[in-house]
Amino acid sequence: MSPGWSWYVIVIVAINILGCVWLLWWTGKRRPGDPAPTDTSHIWDGDLTEYNKPMPKWWINLFYITIVFAIGYLVYYPGLGAVAGVGKWTSAGEHAADKARDDAKLEQTFAPYAGKSIDVIARDPKAVTLGRSIFNNTCATCHGSAAKGAIGYPNLTDDIWHWGGTPDRVLQTVLDGREGVMPEWGKVLTGMGGDNAVDYVVAYVRTLSDPSTMQNNYMAAQGKPLYDGVCVACHGIDGKGNQELGAPDLTDNYWLYGNTSESMRQTINSGRHGSMPAHRQILGETRARLAAAYVWSLSHPDGKPPTATR
């Protein structure tokens, strides 16, 4: 708060307090010439009489005590602009103290799972329940409450893992995040193969899941050398991808951004940038392990890894 606004608040508070004191003093005393308390001349129905009796002293004194309390409160707590108050209380400090106290309680709950592998944690139903709560509070915004994902956000319930599906790789993804970048290749491919180059590559990529469709496929045949010259570095000559780079397998039926021709052209022309935030600082390592264990349990309901992970 700037000094000007601080003084504005102080002046307003002071005027209000002094105004209350003056109002009590002015209205709480009788003046010469005032009618007697029982002499207002306002009578109804013969015996209903209006009185002008002042409030009793004890009542007025309670108002003064309230004003004194308010002044003491403003001295102790920060109620006068930027003045901190002698108690040095702040809402941020109270929040930090409450958070530290609650974190200590949570750490007792999470302590049994510290350092354990997520596939081991996933076999404990209580741990999976805790992990689901952490997931719903932190991860469901992107991956959905059922962890099925959406366009641009991976489905976490299947066995397809672009960055690797071993317990250590899944945990690393949660703790440290991932940055998946597909460069813009439209201009490069156009320079290599003409205006239809991107469509040629799209046609060839579609054949990777079923090589038999290459037969008599003119567009795919034109796209293969373009793929081999540009895309093979990340996705491999067989299109199986590279988990070290997060390059997806192009031979399965899973498409993070959709498998329409329009979507695939956009991916090649403009590139993609998928970002998974790091949660080490957000959750702490043990809570991140519990969330990862819950994710692991979704695709490994029997607690065992599949024979092969992609």
UniProtKB/TrEMBL annotation:
Subcellular location, record wording: Cell inner membrane
Keyword presence, Ion transport: yes
All copies of domain Cytochrome c, residue ranges: 126-209, 218-299
Cofactor binding: number and manner: Binds 2 heme C groups per subunit.
Keyword list, A-Z: Cell inner membrane, Cell membrane, Electron transport, Heme, Hydrogen ion transport, Ion transport, Iron, Membrane, Metal-binding, Oxidoreductase, Repeat, Respiratory chain, Transmembrane, Transmembrane helix, Transport
Cofactor(s) the protein requires to work: heme c
Pfam families (UniProt xref): Cytochrome_CBB3 (PF13442), FixP_N (PF14715)
Superkingdom of this protein's organism: Bacteria
Pathway in which the depicted protein is active: Energy metabolism; oxidative phosphorylation
Transmembrane segments: 6-25, 58-76
Alphabetized NCBIfam families for the sequence: ccoP
PANTHER family given in the database record: CBB3-TYPE CYTOCHROME C OXIDASE SUBUNIT FIXP (PTHR33751:SF1)
Subunit structure of this chain's protein: Component of the cbb3-type cytochrome c oxidase.
Role this protein plays: C-type cytochrome. Part of the cbb3-type cytochrome c oxidase complex.
Family indicated by similarity: Belongs to the CcoP / FixP family.
Protein name per the record: Cbb3-type cytochrome c oxidase subunit
Gene source species: Lysobacter panacisoli
Higher taxonomy: Bacteria, Pseudomonadati, Pseudomonadota, Gammaproteobacteria, Lysobacterales
